Amino acid sequence: MFCDLVDSTTLSERLDPEELRELIASYQECCAEVVGGFDGHIARYVGDGLLVYFGYPQAHEDDARRAIRARYPPPKLGPDELKKKTLQGFAAVYEGMASQAPLLMVVEDAPWVEPSTLELLNLVIEQLQSTSLLLVVTARPEFVSHTTTRKRNKCWTSCPKSSSRRGR
């Protein structure tokens, strides 16, 4: 992994050399502490950056995860807040994808999905109504959704020809 100080060129123009050297040294010390906490190895200091190895000199089964966690430490949030942020993150990704091209999202057998997935579906339905997203959710006829009541767009349900529930 390579990491460097963002906008160091701009900083070098605004700070005198001694201040810049102290800032970079402080940044590198901070990085070394974080990297060391995940058993990473700083292979080389390159200007304001660091070349970091995970899995050297000692390999771990989860070296890739360690590298990601060192680069992006988990936020300090409670479980409920973390879950909310995660669901909002997924919704934002779907919104971004739908803004680039029409997006098809299929969820099969809704009664068997875990509660978090249902929360995500509700969030997608609430927040992405004006995007190019087609959400297809399949469920057995006896499934009752525990979603909040909201104004809905027209919805057409198609049943097999052999079904007596046609046109429902």
Describe this structure in words.
With 168 residues, this protein is an alpha+beta fold. It has five helices and five strands; from the N terminus they run βααββααβαβ.
Would you kindly provide a brief summary of this structure?
This protein has 168 residues and is of the alpha+beta class.
Q: Tell me the helix content.
A: 40-55%
Largest beta-sheet characterization: 3 strands, antiparallel
Order of helices and strands: EHHEEHHEHE
Main-sheet strand order equals 1-3-2
Cα separation of the termini: 56 Å
Which runs of at least 5 residues are low in confidence (pLDDT < 50)? Answer: 148-168
Proportion of beta-strand residues: 15-25%
Backbone shape: elongated
Number of continuous helical runs = 5
The overall pLDDT, averaged over residues, is: 81
Structural class by SSE content: alpha+beta
